[in-house]
Amino acid sequence: MELNRIEYILEKYFQGETSVFEEKELKEYFSSSDVAQHLEKYKPLFGYFSKASSEEFKQTITLQTKKHNVKWLSIAASVVVLLGISTFTYLHQPEETNDLGTYESPEAAFEATQKALSMLSKNVNKGIESVSYINEFQNSKELIFKTK
Hints:
Blueprint: H1 2-15, H2 20-31, H3 43-54, H4 70-91, H5 106-145
């Protein structure tokens, strides 16, 4: 009876379907002295697992650490930061601007305002004309798909 069970568990083992408890049973069986003759060829396999689990690595490993020269790294980082700050300030200097927003007389300011508003009105009207095509598309879509 026990031999049939061992053969069954061994078949499951080779198919990769055994549980931890069943593998423990196989290890115990093959480590005993009464192993069946036809299963004797599997004894070294399970014997290896029991030997390998008891082995320990006893040599010491020496690790070589690299010494970084922190002084040179800090100097290099400081130079990079200073170059970055100086480049930023050089590229972002405020340019001289002429004061274009003031007029001597109220009439000139009124004319400039009228001119700017007229230009704005033209551009807004062009945008509204473009939107009328969208409304036409919406009406056509409603006729085709009858969403209302």
